């Protein structure tokens, strides 16, 4: 069941998501060769707590971290660990969730660690830009298939593949609400886009084939061919027929420097 949100609820959703954007930026300051994913997790955990919020991922279906940290061929849901040490040339998807005043924030950004290859840089840029292609397709009266189609065509035209098994989602008081928001699809199909619809759009795009497998820990999703995967996620609400951003990468851009994408 899709729960459309009131203007008041959308303001609360906005606040929770702005905090995610700030948390991602705080984490971004510390991403460099030699740092562990567990150290990043601690930074996010404490930062969220300092704002009087709670990490939405911690304990969610038993997940042990405040962040999902997915390195290189890991697609999503990587578990922060003292044993995972970032090195030059890696990429890391940092996915973060918050609970604030009863509402949920959820957003993800894939960062380069030091210098990455041109091919990987292209994967990051394409995935990042495809998210905005998807957001640009959000319009009352259209359908979520239009959003997925925009992402899919943008990425496939550039030689990358779209993960099918994991998708975006509705969001509100719960982190995962209806409807599902696939990153592929046919125009004119799927759930109707209308005012009050609040969703996370989160393309997961692979350098090689679209096929994935589950890691031994039961959480980490990885590419079957071992090639890198990127993941970017923003939360939007449909207001006056158009997407209004709830989460933002603006704080992250401030840390990375402009013109990264
Ligand atoms: Mg997320
Ligand atoms: Mg999400």
Overall domain count: 1
**Which ligands accompany this protein?**
magnesium ion
Poorly predicted ranges: none
CATH class: Alpha Beta
Helicity, as a percent range:
25-40%
Please give the CATH architecture: Alpha-Beta Complex
Shape: globular
Order of helices and strands: HHEEEEEHHEEEEEEEEEEH
SS-derived structural category: alpha+beta
List its salient traits:
261 residues, 5 helices, binds magnesium ion, Creatine Amidinohydrolase, alpha+beta, 5-stranded antiparallel beta sheet, 4-stranded antiparallel beta sheet
Describe, in plain words, how this protein is organized in 3D:
The protein has helices at residues 7-28, 37-50, 118-136, 144-157, 250-256, and strands at 54-55, 67-71, 74-76, 91-100, 103-112, 161-162, 168-170, 177-181, 198-201, 204-206, 212-214, 221-223, 229-231, 234-239, 242-245. It has 261 residues and is α+β, with helices and mostly antiparallel strands. It has one domain (7-260): Creatinase/methionine aminopeptidase superfamily (Creatine Amidinohydrolase, Alpha-Beta Complex). The strands form four sheets. The protein has a five-stranded antiparallel β-sheet. Strands 1, 2, 4 and 5 form a four-stranded antiparallel β-sheet that branches. It starts with 6 loop residues before the first helix and ends in a 5-residue tail after the last helix. One magnesium ion (MG) binds at residues 106, 169, 200, 202, 233.
């Amino acid at each position: 069941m899709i729960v459309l949100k009131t203007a008041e609820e959308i303001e609360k959703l906005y606040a929770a998501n702005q905090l995610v954007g700030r948390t991602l930026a705080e984490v971004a300051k510390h991403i460099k060769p030699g740092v562990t994913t567990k150290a990043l997790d601690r930074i996010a955990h404490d930062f969220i707590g300092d704002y009087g919020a709670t990490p939405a991922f911690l304990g969610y279906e038993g997940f042990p971290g405040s962040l999902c940290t997915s390195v290189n061929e890991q697609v999503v849901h990587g578990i922060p660990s003292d044993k995972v040490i970032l090195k030059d040339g890696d990429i890391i998807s940092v996915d973060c969730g918050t609970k604030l005043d009863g509402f949920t924030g959820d957003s993800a950004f894939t960062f380069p660690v030091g210098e990455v290859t041109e091919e990987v840089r292209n994967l990051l840029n394409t995935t990042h830009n495809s998210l905005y292609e998807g957001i640009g397709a959000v319009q009352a009266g259209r359908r979520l298939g239009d959003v997925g189609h925009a992402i899919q065509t943008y990425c496939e035209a550039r030689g990358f593949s779209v993960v099918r098994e994991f998708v975006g989602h509705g969001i509100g008081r719960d982190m995962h609400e209806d409807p599902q928001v696939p990153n592929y699809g046919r125009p004119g199909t799927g759930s109707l886009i209308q005012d009050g619809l609040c969703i996370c759009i989160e393309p997961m795009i692979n350098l090689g084939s679209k096929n994935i497998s589950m890691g031994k820990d039961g959480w980490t999703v990885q590419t079957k061919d071992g090639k890198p995967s990127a993941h970017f996620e923003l939360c939007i609400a449909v207001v006056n027929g158009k997407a209004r951003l709830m989460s933002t990468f603006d704080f992250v851009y401030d840390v990375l420097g402009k013109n990264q994408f």
